Amino acid sequence: MKLMTSLRSVAVASLFLAAPVLAQTATPESANPPASEGKRHGGHHRHHKGKKHGDKMARMAERMDKAVAEGRLTQAQADQFKAEGQQLREELQAQREAAGGKLSDAQRDEARAKMRAFRAKVKQALHANAPQKT
Q: Quick check: helix, strand or coil at residue 30?
């Protein structure tokens, strides 16, 4: 008798817990657009593939600040490099928007070449001012 009472209470409790889930209606897709449409970093990402491109500039700025603290760059150089990097990023974004969201292969290659040249310039400045190891 006690067994039947406990089984009945477990069944009733599980129904109470499952009822809100079963009563829930599915939301239409247009009401909740995916995180990739319109929202840059808000909401949840469906697939986590490491850092996003927007974070690259923030990481670069942090590395520049660290280099200034270590004496490998002056604050003026760091500010100049940050501004130049931001300008390259905005330029690329403007090109992408003008092209309707996708760049041609030539534009993509040109942008990659500019970014490589920029990174090489930053790297050269960091190594030129680096303290000599003894």
A: coil
pTM, two decimal places: 0.54
CA dihedral in degrees (14, 17, 19, 20; nearest 10)?
A: -170
Task: For residue 20, give the amino acid letter.
Answer: P
For 52-70, write each residue's pLDDT tens digit: 555 777 888 898 899 889 8
Structure tokens at 113: 């070449």
For the chain, how long is the longest CA-to-CA vector? 86
Whole-angstrom Cα distance, residue 43 to residue 79? Answer: 32
Cα–Cα distances in Å, from 23 out to 27, 39, 67?
13, 30, 57
**Number of CB atoms found within 10 A of residue 81's CB:** 21
